[in-house]
From TrEMBL:
This is Lipoprotein. It comes from Brumimicrobium glaciale. It comes from the Bacteria.
Amino acid sequence: MKLRFLSIIILLLLFSCKEDGKEINSSTPASNEKANTNDEIQTNDLKDELPEGFNQDTLKTEALFTAGGFDDKLYYELLIETHLCNPNYTDTTSDGSTPCSSRFFNFYPYNHKRTIDDAFLLQIKAGVNKYPYRRLLVFVREKGKLILMNGIVGYLVERISRPNEIDDLIVAVFDDLGNDKFDRYDVLLRYKDGKYHFIEAIGDLKGKFETADLKKRASKAIQERINEKELIF
């Protein structure tokens, strides 16, 4: 009787182990499917499916600031609205603020479905408001108020037209490595779901990433570095 009871227990244990094994095996394809889906999303983001007949324009940007003033008072008014400059600045101001001047700020459009006062890129010179690096800020107007959509520690390199009339951006991201050492990452940003997102790295201080494999590996490492230091926010 005892032997029979012991045999039943052993059989139950064996059956339980087999069932657990089946459950683990059945969950594996689902995990792989999820991973494949994520890969497909990233791949789709990289695809440049332009409609037939669309002429894509690339506008290179010279990250220069001028001493001659803005050519439209609208830019001056927008600067004041961002609260990034001091409209009452004088030669005797010593609070660390910056005058609302084209010597320190420059404007670029990015959303061609809206006017410049509702959507603009603002390039800011290094040292403004005691921030040591150049910055590129992306503003959009929502419900009558300017909202900061994105910020990049670096500067605008190119704007590339898109069928949705919202430009792709090539930006140079600045990375302070410490001990007077620096790096720069040229990356592609694309507008999606209300803000700009990292798509891929184009190159660095050593030049462009020429091969697909190098670009893929570099993009992964650079995106991790950018996220870690919040160089794009």
